[in-house]
Amino acid sequence: QMQLVESGGGLVQPGGSLRLSCEASGFSLDDWNIGWFRQAPGKGREGVSCISSSGDTTTYVDSIKGRFAISRDNAKNTVYLQMNSLRSEDTAVYFCAASQVLTTTDTCSPIFFASWGQGTEVIVSP
User: Fold this and answer.
1) How many CB atoms lie under 10 A from the CB of residue 19?
2) What integer pLDDT is reported at residue 105 of this predicted model?
3) Mean pLDDT confidence for 55-81
4) Residue 122 in 3-state DSSP?
């Protein structure tokens, strides 16, 4: 059974950093594009960043460009999201999911992804 498990969330002050991890179990991430998504209270789920199976292609939503970085270590079956210069508006539950649709800015959208994890909560607050 394909399963993704997110970790690394927590409470952090504005300007701080966190690194989220998305670890796969029951399958190999090698052939899967992975996306990070977030859902703030009362809002819909939005695509934050996506990475192709090879790691050659990455996408970022405009609001996090220059602050977040996605990476993957297929040997560890894990994808990471390094989040720096965090802002209060980054507060959300962060999810990862898998897709075999070509990674582009347009396809870094929840409708193209499946095998969702349970999410990890990030709270940015003084």
Assistant:
1) 13
2) 86
3) 96
4) strand
